[in-house]
Amino acid sequence: MLPFTITESLMMFFIYGFIGWVVEVIYYGITEGQFINRGFLNGALCPVYGIGFYCVIWAFRPFLDSFPVLFFGSAIVCTVVELLAGVILYGIFHLRWWDYSDYKFNLNGFICLRFSIYWGIACSLGMYMLHPAVMRFIHWMSPLARQIVLLILIINTIVDIIVTVTAIVGFNKKIRFLNNVSDVYRMPSNKIGSSIYGTVDTIVKQATPAVQMTQNDYKEFTEIYAAHRKAERELAKANREEERQLLSKYAHEGKKSIVNSSKMAVDMSKAAVGKSKAVAVDVSKKAVGKVKKLLPEARLASRLRFGKNDENAEAIRVLRQHYADVLGADSDEELFEDMEAV
User: Fold this and answer.
1) Which tens digits make up the pLDDT trace of 183-230?
2) Mean pLDDT, the chain, as a whole number?
3) Confidence tier at 341 by pLDDT (50, 70, 90)
4) I need a labelling partner for 64 at 20 to 30 A (CA). Which of 34, 85, 193, 201 fits?
C-alpha cells in the first residue's frame, strides 16, 4: 500500500517533521522577534509537516511535470492535514498551537488562504529540490544505521508525547479552575446587567411614542438610556476587575507556596549544618523539584496560541504570567525567550 518501505516512510516523517520545525522557528523568529519552540511536542519535530509532505509525495509524484497540479494539489492536501490536526487537537485538549483568526479568509483560525499558498509553494519546491536529496541521504545510510536511528527517534518521540500530554492535563486542570472562578464572579454581574438591559429595553419600547411626539422627550430618553448604559459598563468593569484580582491571587498563591518551600529549605539547611546535611539537602531537592515540575507546563504555555474570543484566553494569559513569576522572569515574554535554556 505504501509507496516506500516502512523504514523509508518513518525516516521521511522524522526528517520532514524536523525541517518543518526549523521553518516554523525561523518564521516566528522573524515575525515575532524571539525564539519559540513551535509544534505540539517539546522536541524538534512538527508532525503536521512530516505527515503533510509525506502525503504530497505519495499523491503527486506522478505529476512532477505539471507545476499547477503539484502546487494546487499540495496546497489542498496540506491544508486538509492542518485542518484535521487543529480540529483534533482542539477537540481533545481544548487548546490551540496555531491560530489564523487575524488573517483573511480563515476557517475558525485553523486554516487560512495565505498559509495554504505557503504550503503549495513550499511543497512544490520541496518535491523538486528537497525530496531527491532526502532520499539520497536515506539510501546512503546502511540498513542497520537506519534501524538504530529510527529506534532512538521513536523512543524519544514516545517519551516526548507522554511528557507533553502529562503537561497538558495539568495545564487544563488549572484552566478549568480559573474558568470556574471566573464563572462564579460573572454570574452576579450577568444577572444585574440583564436586569439593567431589560430596564433599558422597556424604556425604549415605552418611550418610543413619546419620542415621536416631541424633541424634548427624545432628548430625555437618550439621557436616560446613556445613563443606564454607563451604569452597566461600570458594573461590568468592576466585576471584571474582581475576576482578575482573584485569578492573580490564585497565581500568586502558587508562587508563594514554591517560594516558601525554597525558603524553608534554606532555613533548614542552615540549622542543620554539622547535624543533618542529608535532611537539608532532601528538603532543598523537594523545593527545586516543585519548580522543575512546572517547566513542562511553562514550555507548553509558550507554544500555545489563542484567538481574541477563545474561552480559555484569559486563563492562559494568567497562567503564563504565573509561570514567569514562579520561574523568576520579569514577564512571560522574557520567560519564553529563555525557556529552552531553562
Assistant:
1) 655 556 556 666 665 665 566 556 555 545 555 666 676 677 677 777
2) 77
3) very low
4) 85
Angle at 140 between CA 136 and CA 141, to 5 degrees: 130
pLDDT at 44 over 70: yes
Tell me which of 140, 158, 183 is where a domain ends: 140
pTM of the model: 0.65
Query: Residue 332: which of 317, 342, 310 has the closest Cα?
Result: 317
Return the residue matching grid coordinates 531527491: 132
Give the three-class secondary structure for 70: helix
Q: Are residues 122 and 177 in the same domain?
A: no
pLDDT single digits (tens) 127-158: 999 999 999 999 999 999 999 999 999 999 99
Residue 117, beta-bridge partner list: none
Q: Are 8 and 138 in contact (CB under 8 A)?
A: yes
Residues 106 and 181 in one domain: no
Q: How far is CA 288 from CA 30, 164, 292, in A?
A: 35, 20, 6
Same domain, 65 and 210: no
The whole domain housing 292 covers 172-337
Contact of 313 with 266, CB cutoff 8 Å: no
Question: Rounded to an integer, what distance in angstroms lies between the CA atom of residue 329 and that of residue 318?
Answer: 14
Helix, strand, coil shares, percent, the chain, to 5: 80, 0, 20
Classified as helix, coil or strand, 201 is helix
As a three-state string, the secondary structure of 107-143 is ECCCEEHHHHHHHHHHHHHHHHHHHHHHHHHHHHCCH
